[in-house]
Design a protein that fits this description.
The structure holds 2 protein chains of 2 kinds.
Chain A lengths: L22 H17 L2 H32 L6 H16 L3 H5 L3 H31 L6 H23 L4 E2 L9 E4 L2 E4 H23 L1 H11 L1 H6 L4 H27 L1 E2 L3 H16 L4 H21 L1 H18 L11
Antiparallel strand pairs in A: 1-4, 2-3
Helix pairs in contact in A: 1-2, 1-12, 2-7, 2-10, 2-11, 2-12, 3-5, 3-6, 3-10, 3-11, 5-10, 7-8, 8-10, 11-12, 11-13, 12-13
Chain B lengths: L11 H20 L3 H27 L6 H19 L3 H26 L4 H21 L1 H4 L5 E2 L11 E6 L2 E4 H24 L2 H11 L1 H6 L4 H27 L1 E2 L1 H4 L2 H14 L5 H30 L5 H4 L5 H15 L3 H7 L7
Antiparallel strand pairs in B: 1-4, 2-3
Helix pairs in contact in B: 2-7, 2-10, 2-12, 2-13, 3-4, 3-10, 4-10, 7-10, 8-10, 12-13, 12-16, 13-16
The chains are: A mainly alpha, B mainly alpha.
């Protein structure tokens, strides 16, 4: 290579950036297209794809909190599922007494109960996150083994407390009326709630990315991860910043919990436990701590579950694991390895 | 001192406790005739061995695995399927053991080689995922495992409750059930002593070195992945053997009794409350936990009714017998925080740095 091949650096060029790794981004699209001939009918393919995207977005919302907390604070919260369940239960506190309003056939009335329910769920799970961070996690920063033990203990206590407060039965949680049913385009039916879920998921994803990459808070958080002492020396409260991150992560889990409960139209205390495994798989596939990887991982897991459930129902039950093994064979640290650890 | 592997309990109270537990377990069939005490005693034996094998992983190597019940389940299911398929014969028991234990060892080897290179957190998550997949498999492959119903089977003639050896031995009938109990007691005691031997061997010291500082252990020339995998395989073998004994005692293997996530949590609670990295802690932890599980509930039921009759809000719910795990969970968190060495560590009194 001669020196003439190198383009002269012009002053307007941005800082040199690492090459973007686009292969994982294309994976979901390739997978979806590859499934089209296998599924056969176009309309069921569209339905399955929409279902996967919606499920993926919900899993992403729940998993993003976990991956944020891990990536930024190096804390693995095995009790993350508890925030999901708490969010769902809090939503029932608002939605069930006002069942008349959520049963009314008007979008505005429905939203008038749904929005407070979601906000209440996020507020309570976020507040619980603050308590958990102060009580359980603060004493064990930097000790992974103890973090796992503490948060697992927290999960047990939270699940039992939910049973004590609400009883062991499954609580039905019907969708608000105007979110039921689907739009029919040609011979393709698209469920309304799934569209809403996809919208919310995209907003959360873009919101997290913009906050981390374009705002001063994001800059401080990323800097605090890289070199905590330095950021503290500059006069910022890294502790408080991390508490905020944990709160946001827990609130996101609560949001995901409400959406999942409405999707399944039921709430029970062990839902957090069941979802934890799915979320862990997503986080592992994406690469611990990577929000983008988590997003793609969630989509992949949901796609494999939906297409798999349609094509090979028996295999679908372990498809998550097979997907995880395949991805880890290809990239042992997940799709987007976070380089700092 | 060979039998204690040169690692005595090192605390008078602990020694007395251990002796009391072992003696009580040994004479339970005579002391408390009846089905329930014997069930509780058998469960204590089996869990003591299972928890001790988990302690080899958690306490001595510092790896958190959530797949331990998977190995336990493999042992249970192997002997259950063999006895169900081949009829109640000793050949079936042998076949179950001959298939179950190597299968558990192979799987442990696979998981170890696949994921022990990574960090503790990654390992914990991967084992959790693998174990949940295994649980799903066990409940779905109903032609083999009986699905959610599990497999019930009968034991060889000699071990059946109907087989009476001595009609009246100081007022107690010595039956096949009693024989099964003593097989379990001796088998579990043997496994725990073997584990004590393992952790006090040079191999066990290397495991502790890996736990304390993996990088330094590697720098000293130890192949840490090899040691960790080896420990993983030993733990899996003991867990599978405990599973075999459990299935033989229950004459049944199903997802709820041998594979469920709640058993995994129970094991974790027992290790931590008893004392990580001590092996003796497994005996103490299992005894306390299972006694609590079986007898605390009655106590809580009484307290719950008392508070309910006083008209207190919420408290009856919190004290409801089904909520006993809530209190043990709180105890667990408190002991991770305040007594990281558990009961045994406390009794020994030598404050060791945790982690």
């Amino acid at each position: 290579m001669t020196s003439t091949d190198i383009p002269a650096p012009s002053t307007s060029d941005p800082l040199p950036q690492a090459r973007r790794d686009l292969v994982p981004v294309l994976l979901p699209a390739i997978l979806a297209l590859a499934m089209l001939p296998l599924v056969g009918s176009f309309s069921s393919w569209v339905t399955l794809t929409i279902a996967s995207l919606a499920m993926g977005m919900m899993i992403f919302i729940m998993a993003s909190g976990l991956t944020l907390v891990f990536g930024l604070m190096d804390v693995l919260n095995f009790g993350h599922g508890a925030f999901i369940a708490v969010g769902a239960y809090v939503a029932t506190l608002v939605l069930l007494p006002l069942a008349a309003m959520s049963g009314a056939d008007s979008l505005l009335t429905n939203l008038a109960v749904l929005v407070p329910a979601v906000l209440a769920a996020m507020a309570v799970s976020g507040a619980l996150g603050v308590v958990v961070e102060r009580v359980l996690i603060l004493p064990v920063y930097g000790q992974h083994l103890k973090q796992i033990l503490m948060t697992t203990g927290g999960l047990i206590v939270a699940e039992q407390a939910l049973y004590a407060l609400w009883g062991p039965q499954i609580i039905p949680l019907p969708l608000p009326t105007s979110l039921r049913g689907s739009f029919i385009i040609g011979d393709v039916a698209i469920a309304k709630y799934r569209l809403l879920v996809m919208l919310v998921g995209l907003v959360v994803f873009v919101g997290i990315q913009l906050t981390l990459n374009r705002t001063k808070i994001g800059l401080l958080i990323r800097a605090g991860v890289e070199n905590r002492e330095m950021v503290e020396a500059l006069g910022y409260h890294v502790k408080r910043l991390f508490l905020g991150v944990f709160m946001v992560g827990s609130a996101l889990a609560g949001l995901g919990g409400v959406m999942w409960a409405l999707y399944r139209e039921q709430v029970h205390a062990s839902m957090g436990n069941e979802l934890t495994v799915l979320i862990f798989i997503v986080v592992i596939i994406g690469g611990l701590g990577s929000v983008g990887g988590c997003f793609i991982g969630a989509l992949l897991v949901a796609m494999v579950a939906n297409y798999g459930g349609f094509l090979l129902p028996k295999l679908a039950l372990v498809s998550n694991i097979l997907l995880m093994v395949a991805i880890l064979m290809w990239r042992p640290r997940g799709l987007y390895a976070v380089t700092s650890r | 001192m060979m039998i204690l592997s040169g690692d005595p309990p090192r605390s008078r109270v602990l020694s007395l406790l251990l002796i009391a537990i072992v003696v009580l377990l040994a004479i339970t069939p005579f002391l408390f005739p009846g089905a329930k005490p014997l069930n509780v005693a058998a469960k204590i034996c089996i869990f003591a061995a299972l928890v001790a094998s988990y302690d080899l992983l958690l306490g001595y190597t510092g790896t958190v695995s959530f797949a331990h019940t998977m190995f336990y389940g493999i042992g249970s299911y192997a002997v259950a399927i063999a006895l169900y398929g081949m009829g109640p014969s000793w050949a079936a028991v042998g076949t179950g053991i001959a298939i179950g234990l190597p299968l558990a060892a192979l799987l442990a080897l696979g998981i170890g080689l696949f994921s022990l290179r990574v960090e503790a957190i990654f390992f914990a998550m991967i084992t959790l995922a693998v174990a949940s997949a295994f649980l799903v498999l066990a409940s779905q492959l109903s032609w083999l495992t009986g699905g959610e119903d599990g497999r019930s089977f009968s034991l060889p003639e000699l071990l059946r409750p109907g087989t009476v050896f001595i009609k009246d031995f100081f007022g107690v009938r010595i039956t096949g059930r009693t024989l099964t109990y003593y097989i379990i007691l001796i088998g579990c005691a043997g496994m725990i002593l073997a584990l004590l031997r393992v952790v006090n061997s040079p191999f066990g010291r290397v495991l502790q070195a890996v736990r304390e500082n993996r990088f330094r252990a590697e720098a000293l020339g130890y192949r840490t992945v090899f040691h960790l995998t080896y420990a993983n395989v030993i733990a899996a073998l003991v867990a599978a053997a405990a599973g075999v004994l459990n299935a033989m005692w229950l004459r049944y293997a199903g997802p709820d009794t041998s594979l469920s996530f709640s058993i995994m949590l129970d094991i974790l609670l027992m290790v931590v409350i008893g004392g990580m990295g001590t092996i003796y802690g497994a005996i103490i932890g299992a005894t306390i936990f299972i006694l609590a599980q079986n007898y605390l509930q009655a106590l809580m039921g009484a307290a719950s009714e008392a508070t309910a009759s006083l008209g207190l809000p919420l408290l009856p719910n919190l004290l409801h017998p089904d909520r006993w795990l809530l209190w043990l969970g709180l105890l667990f968190v408190a002991s991770v925080y305040f007594f990281p060495t558990g009961i045994v560590g406390r009794l020994r009194g030598a404050p060791k740095p945790a982690d």
